[in-house]
Amino acid sequence: MDPGEYNHPDHFDIYANAVLYHAASHLVYKQPLTKTFDDHKLLFYRISRIFVALLGTACIVAAYLIGKEFNANTGLIAALLVAIFPSYVDHSHYITADMPLALFILSVILFAVRYLKHPSHRNLLAGALFCALSLSVKYPGGLTLLLMVSVIISKHFRERTVLLKRLSETVSAFLLFLFLASPYLFLNYDKAIKAVLVNAYPIHLGADGLGWPGNMAFYATSYLDFSGVIMLLFFFLGGVYIVRKEKPYALPVFFGLFYWMVLSKVGLHWERWALPMYTCPLLVSAYGINVAHEKAVQLSRRYLFPFWCVALFLIVCKLLIASSVMTAQFTLKDTRFASYLFTQKAGIAEENTLYEGFTPFYPSNMRDGSVLNAYNTLDKNKTIRYVIVSSGLYDRYLGEIGKYHAEAEFYGKVFSLPLVRKFAPREYFSDGSYPFYLNNDLARGLAFLLDYTRDREQLFTGPTIGIYRYVPPGFLDR
Asked: How much is the pTM?
């Protein structure tokens, strides 16, 4: 069956969820999916989220197995870092292709390391399988095939006959597995090619156009914000020692760096695209933490081991608190829903409100662009008494005032109206009046968790929603 989607292409996710949906429909309702989906969408969405969460959990196992190829302690540390790494915890909640891709890339790395140690057909075929699954999830996942090719060349460089044979076997197995996992990429190859070309140079409203170096810096900063400086030091230590001690087997672990450089060439950047990139610093940092532990135990100076313990404790605390904050935020009321309840209570009706997307009356998308667009199109025949705007849109326009001068000027007029109510996530230690030692994610996370335990009903997640009252005559009169 043609999945009808080729942008990512997400075919693994589509087929896997289709199987789960059909099975759940027959098991729970004793009816085919076509008769149950519309009335029970929430159940099927929960199934998809549980499925992604299980794949995210499997990343922990994959990280452990990769680390274990070097030594048992590195495996345990790698599993711990992946288990509490905030970005992985966050994206394991979403029905997107990013966590499946991270899992499959970790699996390719695992079997690439194993092939370097034991060049068996089993490891080669397993690597080719997960390469195919990676591409069936997202087109950049096809870069993993280059990893397997590099590993084979590295292993059989002096055996030309074996080298050519194994390369042909790998590519053939990859194509076979890809056809089995995503046959319509072959049957409708023109759509796949078009999707790749379109996605190679994407633009969207609010895109900041950082360019190649800027995108690389964005992803590097994203990782550093999660990991912290101490973990970065262990990454450098691990990088030196894993190359020195594990030279024949270290190549696959650095695939994330290659992925980082290639994907940064794409015009846009999203933090979730970095999940495969994070595999490198997490695995190498785990190796570095273990090296530091070994050195601390071996050396006779007494302060080294306690120092190592404190460093590991700080790393775990930072990651665990950030992950706890992200998890807790999923239980908070969204600003769009909270503001919708307020509009119903305050008698603010859609019929007399000028509003844009990502607001209580249109929460899930952009609607018709900015509130100025809505004023000139969808809401042009209304008698306007309220205006509702969302940072999910106005931040994009105000970020490019030179390009969207008219929209920025219109927003300025809206912001000058009397504010009825504002709904926004609470900010912590965001201005200069607080001591410098509170200006960090750890302190902000602890403050949030403290407020969460006291009264989470006063906390919100989502974009900032502003509800303004318009009293004519004024700039909205036609």
From this structure: 0.91
